[in-house]
Amino acid sequence: MSGYLGTVLIVSRDDLACSQLSNALVEHALCVEFCVGALTAMDRLNRRKFEAVVVDSLLGDQTSVCLQQIRASASNSTAVTFALTKSAEENAQALKGGFSFGLNRPLTADSISHTVRVAYGLIVRERRRYFRYPVGIPVVLNRKEAPIVYGRTVNISERGMALSTSTPLAAGDEGTIEFTLPGTALQIRAVSRVCWNDGKGKSGLSFLSVPFHMASQLQAWLARKLEEQMPEAVVDRFRLPADLTAVEEVQMA
Q1: Which domains are delineated in the chain?
Q2: pLDDT class for 240, splitting at 50, 70, 90?
Q3: For 106, what's the count of Cα atoms within 13 Å in the CB-facing half-sphere?
Q4: pLDDT at position 223, please?
Q5: Cα 2 to Cα 17: distance, rounded to the nearest angstrom
Q6: How many C-beta atoms lie closer than 10 Å to residue 240's C-beta?
Q7: Are 101 and 8 within 8 A, CB to CB?
Q8: Comparing C-alpha atoms, which of 134, 135, 11 is closest to residue 82?
């Protein structure tokens, strides 16, 4: 994933459309995977995280089945969805049915690029929600009715972190985790719960509650780290005011 914003799953049997979409998406720093039907798509959606999914209306009834599966998926319920349609009327029906965006045939490089640029802010937000930045910094976990635990992070995300501790942590343990983001003076305190442990000193914590200003600072810091991993040409492309305006209009709609 180094150098890429995220991964898009394309569900279609149309080789030409898949090729056109793939070329445009890769230019926008998006990896692409393909499958030809709903059953294969369901398997992928249950096992993998995708920032966006394109579903071809030529699949017939399977189109709505795929959308239902996306929204029911634990990892992909908030993925950005695109309907690949064959008419303006079908495009409108897809949007009404719950798809985020429509890609209407005949496809062109410009039409795909325009839609992706408009959707870019949502794709970035989706990527950032699950983005885990690998970093090792000291943390302090103040547990309820238990001794303080000291450790180091393995990675950090908006929703939690993985950490290494000399004191074993049990799933379900709760407490307040405290740490300072590296390269800043930003101190974060979050009420957290242990979700898992591997029995070898590593555990996963989810954030239950983070003060708004701290959550905003963490999101901004992670956004910068995510941006650092993207090709400069892609970053510059989406810094244009016109693109930002388009994203804001979509998010307000």
Answers
A1: 6-130+230-252 (3.40.50.2300), 133-210 (2.40.10.220)
A2: very low
A3: 1
A4: 84
A5: 26
A6: 11
A7: no
A8: 11
Q: Measuring CA to CA, which residue among 23, 91, 81 is closest to residue 57?
A: 91
Entry pTM: 0.74
Residue in the structure block whose two tokens are 């983070």: 210
The residue whose two tokens read 């990527």 is 127
| Angle at CA of residue 45, ends 76 and 101, nearest 5° | 55
CA 213 vs CA 40, 139, 153, 187, 224: distances in Å: 42, 19, 21, 11, 17
**Measured distance CA(209)–CA(218) in Å, rounded:** 13
Place of tokens 């995220």: 6
Structure tokens at 24: 């445009």
Name the residue type at position 186.
L
- 3-class state of residue 156 by DSSP: strand
Mean pLDDT over residues 57-80, rounded?
91
- Copy the structure tokens of residue 123: 């794709």
Please give the C-alpha separations between residue 83 and each of 9, 17, 60, 164, 205, in angstroms, as whole numbers: 12, 12, 12, 43, 36
Structure tokens at 111: 């039409």
Q: What is the DSSP letter of 37?
A: S
SS3 217: helix
The vertex-102 CA angle with 100 and 104, nearest 5°, equals: 175
pLDDT in tens, 102-161: 999 999 999 999 999 889 888 888 888 888 899 999 999 998 778 899 999 999 999 999
Residue 77 and residue 167: Cα distance in Å, rounded? 35
CA distances from 6 to 14, 40, 117, 128 (A): 23, 20, 14, 10
